[in-house]
């Protein structure tokens, strides 16, 4: 077993609420005070959604954008100020294949991930004077995690009843490894997914008419399963 060379001073854990944007500057300063620099920011906070738009309270859409989108860009803003001073750093954002495509029962989640994609792709174009600051978007497909247990539903007070089987999803450690490889190689965007989800990404990118046809077919079945509690 390989022994870690990390000591107590190499690790700092801070509690952070992405929706409490007024706390993000202090959190950034605490990290800088402890380590003296920030090399990498990984934006990995967010919640998914499982509900039909027609049944969903608009408060849910506000909450999704506050957390997934505005919380992420708030934290990024404070960390980026430091990286610009150093002229160096990596900002890795966990988006989703839902940032590339649209899917039923996840309209708010898809919207928040499309927002992240648009924001970070635009930010990259504003940082051309800083070639050593990398903006890296990671788009995972289904991954084994607690994301389903914590999804938004049609109203803020309701939690999901059936989280379903996760065995078909990509193991968490494989997703992490591929994310690290992507970040180490400064990939602007990486799709971290198995087939058939990966194939659907290619359809959305290169043959959207076929993707819409396929998603309508798949979506109908998914909605039927959702309504019958599967």
Automatic annotation (TrEMBL):
It comes from the Eukaryota. One of its GO terms (molecular function) is oxidoreductase activity. Keywords: Oxidoreductase. SUPFAM superfamilies: NAD(P)-binding Rossmann-fold domains (SSF51735). The keyword Oxidoreductase applies. The keyword Oxidoreductase applies. Pfam families: adh_short. InterPro entries: NAD(P)-bd_dom_sf (IPR036291), Sc_DH/Rdtase_CS (IPR020904), SDR_fam (IPR002347), SDR_family_member_7 (IPR053011). Belongs to the short-chain dehydrogenases/reductases (SDR) family. This is DHRS7 reductase. The lineage of its organism: Eukaryota, Metazoa, Chordata, Craniata, Vertebrata.
């Amino acid at each position: 077993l390989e022994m870690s060379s990390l000591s107590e001073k190499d690790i700092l854990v801070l509690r952070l609420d992405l929706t409490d944007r007024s706390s993000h500057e202090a959190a950034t300063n605490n990290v800088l005070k402890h380590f003296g620099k920030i090399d990498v920011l990984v934006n990995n906070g967010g919640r998914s959604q499982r509900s039909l738009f027609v049944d969903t309270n608009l408060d849910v859409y506000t909450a999704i954008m506050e957390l997934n989108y505005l919380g992420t860009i708030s934290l990024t803003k404070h960390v980026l100020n430091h990286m610009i001073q150093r002229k160096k750093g990596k900002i890795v954002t966990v988006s989703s294949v839902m940032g590339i495509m649209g899917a039923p029962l996840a309209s708010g989640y898809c919207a928040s991930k499309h927002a992240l994609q648009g924001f970070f792709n635009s930010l990259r174009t504003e940082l051309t004077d800083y070639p050593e600051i990398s903006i890296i978007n990671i788009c995972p497909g289904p991954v084994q995690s607690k994301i389903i247990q914590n999804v938004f539903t049609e109203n803020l007070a309701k939690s999901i009843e059936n989280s379903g089987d996760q065995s078909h999803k990509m193991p968490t450690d494989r997703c992490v490894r591929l994310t690290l490889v992507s970040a180490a190689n400064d990939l602007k965007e990486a799709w971290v997914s198995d087939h058939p989800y990966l194939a659907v990404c290619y359809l959305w990118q290169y043959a959207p008419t076929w993707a819409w046809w396929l998603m309508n077919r798949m979506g109908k079945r998914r909605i039927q399963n959702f309504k019958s509690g599967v």
